[in-house]
Amino acid sequence: MEQIFPTAEHTAAALRAGEVTSADLTDEAIARIEREDKAVNAVCVPDFDRARAAARRADRARAQGEDGPLLGVPVTVKESYNIVGMPTTWGMPLHRDYMPAEDAVQVSRLKAAGAVVLGKTNVPLGLQDIQSFNEIHGTTSNPWDHGRTPGGSSGGSAAALACGFGALSIGSDLAGSLRTPAHFCGIYTHKPTLGLAAARGMVPPLTPALPAEPDLAVVGPMARSARDLALLLDVMAGPDPLTLGVAHEVTLPPARHERLCDFRVLVLDEHPFIPTGSAVRAGVRRVADALVEAGARVERHSALLPDLAEAAVLYTQLLFSGSVARFPVESYEVLRTRAAGLSADDRSLDAARLRGMVFSHRDWIEANGRRELHRHGWRRFFAEFDAVVCPVTPTPAFPHDHNPDPRERRIDIDGVEYPYFDQLVWAGVATMPGLPATAVPAGRSPAGLPVGVQLIGPVFEDRTPLRLAELLEHEIGGFRAPR
């Protein structure tokens, strides 16, 4: 029989009712990690002694009448977040001993909410992969099939949640790094609207933890239920107290609707750059059928939808422009030479990646201008629709592939191979214009692997896809742990 782990909401309620103590919950979580994580390798930097001490403090605080949204709830944190007293390496061997001087903003918010941090979860080298392995901490495996990846770069957090290692986790998303692991591991996550949650302290080793606003990238919640996502997002949301937080507070608007029958949804399962595998199509269809049966207005096409092909090229160029911005000059010149050799007729995503890597500032400004046109197109779209349902990636979790040259890797879609990074186009649908997107489980493949979909909503209306996710959880079922 599959295990059913309690949600953070139920755990918090049990703590408030005095049915359990944080010390007991923390000991149970630690025992589970020590017993089961050798096969998965999700929690790469345990912090059990401090977790037990934090749990005891939480129990004392509750005994004195204190409370908090997460008081006493055990959680994990992605390795890339700075935590005082723990190394932050981003999987880079050169920085295996780097110790930050202060907590990341989101770690501070977790602690202020009363959460008990069990440890850090594994990531890929530099957070730049769709898998989670590195020389320092090794390989994290998918809990459903240890021969497959849990995704990346928040793969350790997704695997930890699927295994019951804590009730919540926090991750980040630039190229689907929250949504892909959720889809691969059968959990829930939410990529917030760009700029909704402060990211200070989620930075590479030795990088100053400044209140900068990164392009495309966000930090966000991961959980085993849609309601838990909303609970954790309320803790995470808000501007950096050093900048916009001086003058602003965040008040998100309520969800547009409370019943499935009132939602207006566009369902997509085809992308102009890459096919969607049969298992993922089935997951999208399952969600679409549930919406239709509930009486929602479901469409398959809309002239209002911004052009997906142009969006994919823009996203690819902006993404890879940022990824190589700090390359040595010699490496940059090699890329420029390769890009100059491209045919003007080459409109492949491989070409878009290479051109993006050598963008001039003028090129970036021009691409950003086209992005603003797409953002306005989405505003018009969401005047007529409330959400988009679409894939996260074209396939369920794929086998581990540690080829050191990602350009040589391939993704198998129903027996046909495609360039490895082409699978990122679905993540870019929400990322490029900065839209919120909630990833939800939508069944399993014939091989028993989890399949998820993403629910994309209007900018800064994050509660709309979160509410839709909650309603769908009741209609199609939610998280189930691997045997």
CATH-assigned homologous superfamily of the domain at 8-256: Amidase signature (AS) domain
- Which CATH class of the domain at 8-256? Alpha Beta
Shape, principal axes of CA atoms = globular
DSSP helical segment count: 14
Kindly name the structural category: alpha/beta
Q: List low-pLDDT spans.
A: none
Summary, kept brief:
35% of the residues lie in helices and 14% in strands. With 483 residues, the protein is of the alpha/beta class.
Could you please describe the fold and organization of this structure?
The chain is α/β, with parallel strands linked by helices and 483 residues long. Among the domains are: 8-256, Amidase signature (AS) enzymes (Alpha-Beta Complex), CATH 3.90.1300.10; 308-378, no CATH class. It is 35% helix and 14% strand. The chain contains 14 helices and 15 strands. It has helices at residues 8-16, 22-36, 48-63, 105-112, 155-162, 179-185, 226-236, 278-293, 308-323, 329-340, 349-357, 361-381, 425-431, 463-476; strands at residues 43-46, 74-78, 116-121, 133-134, 138-139, 168-173, 188-191, 218-223, 264-267, 297-299, 387-391, 410-413, 416-419, 437-444, 450-456. The strands form three sheets. The chain has an eleven-stranded mixed β-sheet, with helices on both faces. The chain has a two-stranded antiparallel ribbon with strand order 4-5. The protein has a two-stranded antiparallel sheet with strand order 12-13. Helix 9 (308-323) packs across helix 12 (361-381) and helix 9 crosses helix 13 (425-431). The longest helix has 21 residues, at 361-381. It is globular and about 70 Å long.
